[in-house]
């Protein structure tokens, strides 16, 4: 009986170890991991190997966890039947469920989550050894899993080694420690914001942007440019929201006659939906070799103007 109890205890502890390892793997600091691995830390290199092949690691942990679950249940069932003459499967399952869920799953996962950066390196050699022992089994299971995932899911994307939030944290700490200057921090944050900010957030409202009617002449454009210090003027027909083109002040500055109409200098406007990301808008403006675009809402109405300068100065 003592031997069986000892085996149950060992399997119970290993179950908690595998469950906690999974949580520590997910919660550990990826930047610290990369730094330690670059410094030559063997355990960090082992953990980094796990992160480079996450499916293999998680499969190995699940195999170990389930084996220990089966061991605990099997030995406990034998003990109940041989010592206490209890053979009711439902009763045994009920008795074992509470300690397994609390002490072999919930508590270890919560504990390892709080101490992820400490425990992941401690358990790395054990998980690495088990991974090598179960290498063939894990490989087969990963292949089977990938096959079924490909059947049901398209356009799979791998997760980045470092998340956007973790990178932002590093930038804040670097700026606080004097590694990055303030303008360098602003530049990096601008780049990070490009994919999340929309042109509708940075556009100039149509009511505030310089504009002239289609019947205007070059003199009117020059007057507006002189008064507003703008380098581009919207041209509309009948109502301001009905934009038909844009005139760049530089085009009319030297060559045009003051009383000449705008048709020769009118450029077709680039229309961009208001929910377009700033990153995509920059690429669109660059591909069209223009500096300004008209922003439209869901009803295809022009609501504002966005320029390249606004987009890169988020």
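^ structure tokens above, recovered residues below v
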């Amino acid at each position: 009986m003592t031997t069986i109890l000892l085996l149950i205890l060992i399997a119970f502890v290993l179950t908690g170890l595998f469950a906690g390892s999974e949580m520590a793997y997910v919660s550990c600091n990826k930047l610290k991991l990369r730094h330690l691995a670059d410094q030559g830390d063997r355990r960090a290199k082992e953990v980094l190997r796990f992160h480079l092949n996450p499916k293999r690691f998680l499969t190995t942990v699940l195999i170990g966890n389930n084996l220990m679950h089966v061991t605990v249940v099997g030995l406990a069932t034998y003990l109940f039947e041989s010592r206490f003459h209890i053979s009711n499967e439902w009763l045994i399952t009920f008795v074992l469920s509470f300690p397994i869920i609390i002490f072999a799953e919930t508590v270890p996962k919560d504990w390892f989550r709080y101490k992820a950066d400490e425990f992941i390196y401690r358990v790395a050699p054990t998980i690495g050894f088990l991974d090598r022992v179960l290498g063939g089994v894990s490989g087969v299971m990963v292949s089977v899993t990938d096959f079924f995932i490909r059947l049901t899911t398209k356009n799979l994307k791998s997760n980045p080694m470092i998340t956007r939030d973790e990178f932002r944290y590093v930038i804040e700490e670097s700026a606080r420690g004097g590694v990055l200057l303030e303008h360098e921090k602003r530049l990096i944050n601008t780049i990070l914001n490009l994919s999340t900010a929309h042109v509708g957030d940075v556009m100039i409202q149509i009511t505030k942007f310089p504009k002239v009617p289609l019947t205007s002449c070059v003199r009117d454009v020059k007057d507006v440019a002189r008064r507003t210090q703008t380098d581009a003027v919207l041209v509309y027909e009948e109502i301001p929201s009905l934009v038909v083109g844009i005139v760049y002040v530089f085009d009319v500055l030297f060559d045009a006659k003051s009383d000449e109409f705008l048709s020769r200098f009118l450029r077709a406007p680039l229309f961009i939906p208001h929910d377009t990301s700033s990153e995509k808008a920059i690429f669109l403006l660059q591909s069209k070799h223009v500096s300004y675009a008209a922003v439209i809402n869901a009803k295809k109405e022009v609501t504002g103007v966005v320029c390249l300068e606004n987009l890169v100065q988020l």
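The mean pLDDT is 84.
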